[in-house]
Specification:
- Helix 1 packs antiparallel against helix 2.
- A hairpin with a 2-residue loop joins strand 27 and strand 28.
- The protein is built from five helices and 30 strands.
- By secondary structure, the chain is mainly beta.
């Protein structure tokens, strides 16, 4: 009749997709830095702008160099010497071929393209400028080469990125990352492209947590054969986490006060026991219980009352926590009367007077009780203000009247819970509220 529903604790498996937002970046392993291994001067420039797409072996620039010209002349001289030897002098021919290999290997070490070596042999004289070509397909993302400039060996002239595969770097919640394994499958959606989701895989996780967002960055590899994914685009990522097995209960069964997590375990005959638990992952309306309950126990999954403040939750827990001292239903319960302030004056936050009159079931004054008052103000997120609490013990002044004065931290509405105990046993509890000026 009260609307309480119970659910049995069962052993099951939780599986859910980990979702996050990410940014498209180049695959760092596919970024090439183009430079030369010798000094010289740039004569012609074929690729002149950042963002220009190139293919492998496309010409980038031509270079003239005294060192390069000397190596070409040495190579041509060795070729001529070899051609002038008669076939009968085989031993000398093998020697001359070894002489050719030295300047040839020098030119190959400088990454002279094969077509330039062939042009050198066909022409029979040194090339004024040698053409250097792109080492890979991709897009020019940095450009330092200028026509006519002098370049030194090792100086970066082009940075070329192959965008056929890209990375998406997404920030995931640390709880989800714990269950996210490398090479897990992922689905990537880019709203600006208005196309079907793309498949990828988790490549790696960063070894640190962000100080600002308390998230862990995860790198996801996504094929991009058509080049539609461009660095800087925002993407939604949905990665598959490893299933987690254990004891599960409905999400609504766990009451989280911020300090502890509690479930109510059915004891039979309408009695319930509050049980502190440790909750784990949550998914699909269920929560994993790491400790605190056993398989097969019944827990409350839906109640007829709403816990709208921590003071109400605390009062409920205190009442449920002492089932062995429940008063006999055939007897009348003690009663208490609460009054705030003095006379008709409204209570003041700086000094709030509280008076409680305690009466036994036979209407005689209760003079041997321990009376406590607990004050609670709910949080105000719009004002960036956290919940506030205060408590005070009242002093018996005679005739079953208990009084105290408490300084509240601010004016406004406070929820008040008055509880009275005798010999360590709760005899009565009442909730009320006050508005302090």
């Amino acid at each position: 009749m009260s609307g309480v529903r119970t659910t049995r604790v069962v052993r099951g498996t939780l599986s859910w997709p980990a979702r996050a937002f990410g940014v498209v970046t180049y695959d760092a392993s596919r970024v090439r830095d183009f430079n030369l291994k010798l000094d010289g001067w740039v004569r012609d420039l074929y690729v002149t702008a950042v963002g220009q797409r190139v293919r492998k072996n496309d010409p980038l620039l031509t270079l003239s160099s005294q060192e390069l010209t000397g190596a070409q002349l040495q190579y041509l001289a060795a070729l001529r010497s070899l051609q002038q030897l008669p076939p009968a002098q085989l031993a000398d021919r093998e020697y001359q071929e070894r002489l050719i290999e030295t300047p040839r290997q020098r030119l190959l070490y400088w990454d002279i393209p094969p077509d330039q070596l062939k042009a050198l042999q066909d022409k029979g004289s040194a090339l004024e400028a040698v053409t250097f070509r792109s080492p890979s397909d991709g897009v020019v993302i940095e450009l330092a080469a200028v026509k006519g400039m002098h370049v030194a060996a090792g100086e970066m002239l082009y940075k070329i990125a192959d965008s056929s595969v890209v990375w998406i770097e997404a920030d995931f919640n640390t709880v989800e990352v714990e269950h996210l394994s490398d090479h897990a499958s992922a689905v990537v959606t880019v709203d600006s492209l208005q196309q079907s989701p793309m498949s990828g895989r988790v490549l790696s996780q960063y070894p640190a947590v962000s100080d600002q967002t308390r998230t862990t960055r995860v790198r996801i590899e996504v094929p991009n054969p058509q080049g539609r994914l461009k660095p800087g685009m925002f993407a939604r990522v949905e990665a598959t986490v490893e299933p987690v097995a254990g004891l599960v209960v409905p999400d609504d069964a766990v009451l989280d006060s911020g300090l502890r997590q509690v479930v109510f375990v059915a004891q039979g005959d309408g009695h319930f026991e509050p049980r502190a638990v440790v909750a784990g992952a949550r998914a699909n309306g269920q929560v994993l219980i790491l400790s605190g309950v056993r398989e097969g126990e019944l827990v409350v999954s839906r109640g007829a009352f709403l816990v709208d403040s921590e003071s109400q939750l605390r009062a409920a827990l205190e009442q449920f926590g002492e089932p062995q001292h429940r008063p006999d239903a055939s007897q009348k319960n003690p009663r208490l009367t609460v009054r705030f302030g003095t006379g008709s004056e409204q209570p003041r936050a700086s000094a709030t007077d509280i008076q409680v009159e305690m009466r036994n079931a036979d209407d005689t004054p209760m003079t041997d009780a321990t009376v406590d008052a607990q004050f609670y103000m709910a949080p105000m997120p719009s004002m960036n203000m956290a919940a506030m609490r205060s408590s005070v013990r009242l002093t018996h002044v005679g005739g079953g009247v208990y009084r105290a004065r408490e300084a509240l931290s601010m004016a406004g509405r406070w929820d008040v819970t008055i509880s009275a105990t005798r010999d360590g046993v709760r005899v009565v509890s009442q909730q009320t509220s006050l508005v302090a000026r």
